Amino acid sequence: MTNETLNKTTEYLKSKGFNSPQIGIVLGTGLGQLVNHLQIEAEVNYIDIPNFPVSTVEFHSGKLLFGTLENKKVIIMQGRFHLYEGYTLQEITFPVRVMKALGITTLLVSNAAGAINLNYKKGDLMLLDDHINLQGGSPLAFKNVSEFGERFTDMCAPYDANLNEKMQQIAKENNITLHKGVYAAVVGPQLETRAEYRYLKIIGADAVGMSTVPEVIVANHLNLPVIAVSVLTDECNPDDLKPVNIPEIIAVAGEAEPKMITLFKEIVKR
């Protein structure tokens, strides 16, 4: 990655009306409805954005949206990129660098995840307090990374404590169950074995998914305050494991989505 590629992409988006955004939002699996609350001022398909990862079939609807949400200018990524689709960690996180270059000062991330902590139930939400990177690489492991920020990025507090506190307060005010826990990021796309679920529990994970951590690492590299929330779509009990049902996972995410929208709208407002 070079400054030239980054500049070319940001200039293109500015020419399309993406001007002075304050907040960037990455929407995870089954969580696309927040865009219905956005007063859209500009939108571009990923496939048309220079240097953006080329959309796979699954992400043909992948769009970058710009507009007003709760009186703030926001950019929303409707659809994200995953390691399991064959992208590199640098490609997956390129949109975060672009949003920062356009001017965002805060990043909000959502995802769908499996509950490792069996006190958490499907349909619940979990605020990420920390994470474990099991994706076998880093989005900062490239030659000229120091041109974009500190190579040895500190990760002692990857998620912004102030934002997390606000989010917990919002959940409390709205009677939304919001657990706080550790998210483990794996490559996928296969789901975990019983032994893997046991391993994840032993190493301290409360939930497992296939995204988010690369974006969060890059946000920290850019000194960009970040907050992330998981919708827990299934319960990963190795002693009672049933074959995974992807339509059911999408349905659970859809049912939990109004709670996520409430949290995100309120945090944007504040």
From TrEMBL:
Gene3D superfamilies: Nucleoside phosphorylase domain. InterPro entries: Nucleoside_phosphorylase_d, Nucleoside_phosphorylase_sf, Pur_Nuc_Pase_Ino/Guo-sp, Purine_phosphorylase. Keywords: Glycosyltransferase, Transferase. Pfam families: PNP_UDP_1. It is an enzyme of class 2 (transferase). GO terms for molecular function: purine-nucleoside phosphorylase activity. Residues 23-268 form the Nucleoside phosphorylase domain. Coiled coil: none annotated. Its EC number is 2.4.2.1. Pathway: Purine metabolism; purine nucleoside salvage. The purine nucleoside phosphorylases catalyze the phosphorolytic breakdown of the N-glycosidic bond in the beta-(deoxy)ribonucleoside molecules, with the formation of the corresponding free purine bases and pentose-1-phosphate. Belongs to the PNP/MTAP phosphorylase family. This is Purine nucleoside phosphorylase. It comes from Flavobacterium sediminilitoris.
